[in-house]
Write a structure and sequence with these properties.
CATH architecture of the largest domain: Sandwich
Strand content: 15-25%
CATH topology of the largest domain: Jelly Rolls
Distance between the termini: 14 Å
CATH class of the largest domain: Mainly Beta
Number of strands: 11
Number of domains: 2
Strand order of the largest sheet: 2-9-4-7-10-11
Structural class: alpha+beta
Number of helices: 11
Shape: globular
Order of helices and strands: EEEEEEEEEHHEHHEHHHHHHH
Radius of gyration: 20 Å
CATH superfamily of the largest domain: Regulatory protein AraC
Length: 289
């Protein structure tokens, strides 16, 4: 099931930063995406959230930042015979161009903010003391409008961009080298992405970029934070999640398309990373509230 493109909120014509209190039996959404970045604070209710290729249980206090066009859904499933608890959440949406001048984002002091928005393409969950401070700011946003709300948002973005208590939720469909990584690493990553269904060997990648196997392995680990096998497997699992969610291909077809040696190997690797088998993942993604 492909995610639905959600239209801009009517409030966006009046407010540069939309902040709404959601109350009711559910979050009022389906598997969808939109151009706005989004911050969601779950105050009560809710059972699970889907962000990219990740499905996680949620509890009161869950706080997540999503980048532009990240597929997601929040659900409030009822147990057998029992009604689900009413949902209450604060949802903030804003265009990623804030504060409105692209030149600002190119300044060296804005590197942490640029990195935050890059990471938000995988969804970010906020934890610890940072979450407590951000939660207070989210509640304050409900009470103000216009520039006062914009200022609060900028303060919140600054807080998150300098915190170590902000963690990626989903795997990237195309994992990116770290900022400043060697061009050779970028070349290897591009080759991996375009040859995913084929066997991929470290020795071949090293030869492509003109390095010895050991030197290339060290450079790749420094530039991506992963070994070559870890990187390739992460990319294959991420692509498999996308195909399970958005196509009707069989598990065997997906295993072949993503470069796994067999459907059985795919099943094992998928369960290890997603904690469920591929068909169970597909069933949970396409399930509607």
């Amino acid at each position: 099931m492909k995610p639905i493109v959600e239209k801009l909120s009517p409030l966006s014509t009046a407010e540069p930063v939309v902040c709404e209190l959601v109350r009711g039996p559910d979050f009022g959404c389906v598997w969808h995406y939109h151009p706005e970045c989004e911050i969601t604070l779950v105050i009560k209710g809710g059972t699970e959230r889907l962000v990219g290729n990740n499905i996680s249980a949620i509890e009161p206090g869950d706080l997540v930042l999503l980048g532009s066009n990240v597929p997601h859904d929040y659900r409030n499933q009822s147990d057998a015979g029992l009604a689900a608890q009413e949902v209450e959440a604060i949802v903030v949406q804003f265009m990623p161009q804030l504060p409105g001048h692209e030149d600002w984002m190119n300044r060296s002091t804005m590197i942490p903010v640029r990195r935050l928005f890059q990471r938000a393409e995988q969804g970010l969950v906020i934890t610890g003391i940072t979450r407590l401070t951000a939660t207070r700011m989210m509640h304050e946003m409900l009470e103000v409008h216009g520039m006062k709300r914009v200022i609060l948002l900028l303060q919140l973005i600054d807080l998150l961009s300098n915190s170590e208590e902000v963690h990626e939720i989903s795997s990237a469909v195309m994992p990116q080298p770290r900022p400043g990584a060697s061009d050779r690493v970028s070349m290897a990553c591009e080759y991996i992405a375009t040859h995913l269904p084929e066997p991929i060997y470290v020795a071949d990648l090293a030869a492509i970029v003109g390095l010895g196997k050991s030197a290339f392995s060290r450079l790749f680990k420094k530039g991506t934070g992963r070994t070559v096998p870890q990187y390739v497997n992460e990319l294959r699992i991420a692509r498999a999640c996308l195909l399970l969610a958005e196509t009707d291909l069989t598990v065997s077809q997906i295993a072949m398309d993503c470069g796994f040696v067999s459907p059985a190997h795919f099943q094992r690797q998928f369960k290890e990373h997603q904690h469920c088998v591929p068909l169970a993942y597909r069933s949970r993604v396409v399930q509607q509230p």
